[in-house]
Amino acid sequence: MNKKIKIFCTLGPSSLTPGIIRKLSEEEVDMFRINLSHTSLESLEKCIKIIKSSSNVPICLDSQGAQVRTGFIGEQKLQLNAGSIVDLVSNSEFSDDKHIPIYPDEVLIQLQVGSLISLDFDTALLQVIETNVNIRARVIIGGFIGSNKAVTIINTPSTLPSLTKIDKTAFKLCKKLGIKYVALSFANRGDDIDELRSIVGKNIRIIAKIESRLALKNLDEILDVSDAILIDRGDLSREIALESIPYIQKEIIHRANSCNVPVYVATNLLETMIENLKPNRAEVNDVVNTLKDGANGLVLAAETAIGKHPVSAVRMIKSLIYRYQNQIEFLSEENLLPHTNLIKPHGGKLVQNIISDKTVLDIASLPKLEIDEQSMIDARQIALGVFSPISEFMSKDEIDSVLGNYTLKSGDIWPLPIFFQIRNTEPFLYGSGETVVLAMKGVNQAVLQIDEIFQFNLNKLAKGMYTTINPKHPGVKHLFCGSNTFVSGKVSLLSNEYKNRKPYELTPLESRLIFQNQQWKTVVGFHTRNVPHRAHEYLQLRALEKYDCDGLFIHPVVGLKKPGDFTGDIIMKAYQLMIEKHYPPNRVVIGGFNSYSRYAGPREAMFTALCRKNFGCSHFILGRDHTGVGSFYKKDAVKKLFNDIGDIGIVPIIFDEIYYCKKCDKCVEHCAHGSKGAYKINGTEVRDKIINGEKIPDWLMRDSIYRIIKEESKVSNQFI
How confident is the model over 118-139, as pLDDT tens digits? Predict the structure, then answer.
């Protein structure tokens, strides 16, 4: 069994908020770290309360320790010029480019003429030239230095206490604040750990940070008295040659493993992700090699404390740990694709039935079967994994199972039969075991390996799918226009047709790659066949906010349309404008959904949700009468079905009807003004107004969207 590799997450300005803390908790981090070097004693208790109110993740309090740092020199970095003379002063004194504050004060007394002082990790180098009245130094190498940055006395030994006054005060609060873990910075001797234990007691676990030459010299005694150790490669590199750090790290980990003492590694694990969504290759290699060395945990510092993408950094670490712990076959599909944080496809695996180009050469010898557009769309979507785990047109038993139990024979929940109905009444000329090419309008698109040819009662099928046999129902009407002969079998898409598809269309594999590239984990999907109006905008952004999702996937239908529907081009261009101008940046992706309306009411609502699960969505917006038609379904039928079936692996978001409240001057679900003065927003009504040339008020649809629709309709001479 793989050992548990822990993830420590340092909290700071970028992450010390309830929302981010909750998201980090959902990623199952093992520890939140508070660094006393960057957290004032006055704000400590407040920080801990914020964490505890948002999470149950344990907290580790990290001491300032025996370290030397620059004091406060201002909000901006200070430039030191080579050759200039500066005074080194107490942190309480005035500072400018001639007065550089350093703390603690004890270190100033220990400086000697000739002492070399590195500031801000070798950004600037000073040499002490006078110690009589003032501590005066010349700048040998200039550079920009910041507040509270590391200071190293290179050639003069200094002795500082392992615990500062702030440390002692903070650690005495540990019991009161319920802290169970503390980290001792610059733990140089076993006695340092003993001193800390006398303050915090026996029940608090102590992590000794190895970050000095003296600590390396006394490593064995530190291991004897510590509950765990942490290799801080940043501060350690101030005293150890940078090129030696990898070898030192390996030796420390080896010794800790030999003593059965947990060992964690920190500093520059994913430094690139302070600014970027992804690390560089060197960082990825470093993390994996650190795990191979035998590290028990990884500590994210600046990546999560001040970085722009704290949650993404944690997800990347989790992905690297997963790859390390799961030895994947060389050149397997799983090895070639990014490890995903996204929801798993329905049934656990994404179906991908694509015939290679080599196989296509034999297609010419196979019989050709011409099929209608609806059946071809279904064939393509089966092969591309949209209907995962379904990989074939359903058998008679499978259809019966879906209609009767809302499940496949495998036990997976599935609400809607996916069948291949022979549309004409002529005898079907092929038998079970045969392979035929599926073509539409003479173009070969897919291959069907026939498994079963069977008869199915159309009334039974209609009643089960649509709750009615009334031919006024469009789905029933289409069904009754075909024969009662059905064919089951595996469907595979020809590779050339995989590329030849509708503009804007995304496959589940492609959408998942996009979401993963954005480091998204939670994605809310939105199904539509209309251009965006204010109610849609409200639903989308409200769902994004309410469920704290990483991104929004707008997924309009671009397949078969009914009379009165907008063209895919118009819908896409309208939404593209919304993404560019009105939606939060880098939080929205749009892709076409090559499908058609079945008008199956609540069954289809659940079906469209499961399809979006396969596209990578964790949440899905549903209307009260989603995919309904006329009065065939009750208004609460969708909600009832989801409640009856229970968890399907994707969170349904069911809103009430959306109104525009004149007094609130915005779209609402509910407000204090009630229905008086409220206007119901209906997509069909919006569409009819546009088609009839009526001016759309801005509260109903953004004027910029209305204009683009009008312009596009002039070019194409059609709305639909």
Answer: 888 778 899 999 998 889 999 9
The C-alpha atoms of residue 692 and residue 697 are separated, in whole angstroms, by 14
Q: Which CATH superfamily is domain 68-153 in?
A: PK beta-barrel domain-like (2.40.33.10)
Distances 58 to 13, 95, 301, 347, 351 between C-alpha atoms, Å? 19, 39, 16, 34, 40
Token pair 């329905």 is found at 346
Instruction: Out of 530, 594, 614, 687, pick the active-site residue.
Output: 530
Of 95-109, 246-260, 358-372, the least confident: 358-372
Catalytic residue among 33, 529, 542, 612: 529
* pLDDT, position 294: 95
Q: How much is the average pLDDT of 98-104?
A: 88
Coil, helix or strand at residue 524: strand
Does the active-site annotation cover 233? no
* Predicted confidence (pLDDT) at residue 499 exceeds the cutoff of 70: no
Q: Has 530 been annotated as catalytic?
A: yes
- Expressed in angstroms, the distance from the first to the final Cα of the chain is 58
pLDDT at 717 over 50: no
The residue with tokens 């344990």 is: 58
pTM: 0.78
Q: Is the sign of the CA dihedral 387, 597, 631, 474 positive or negative?
A: negative
Alpha carbons within 13 angstroms on the beta-carbon side of residue 257 total: 14
Token pair listed for 276? 């970027």
Residues 354-499, CATH architecture: Roll (3.10)
Let me know: does 132 contact 56? Beta carbons within 8 Å: no
Pick the CATH number of 509-716 from 1.25.40.10, 3.40.50.300, 3.40.50.620, 3.40.50.720: 3.40.50.620
Task: With CA atoms as reference, report the closest residue to 528 among 621, 613, 658.
Answer: 621
Angle among Cα 332, 326, 506 to the nearest 5 degrees reads 50
Query: 6-64+162-335: what CATH class?
Result: alpha beta
Any idea which of 364-378, 384-398, 603-617 has the lowest mean pLDDT? 364-378
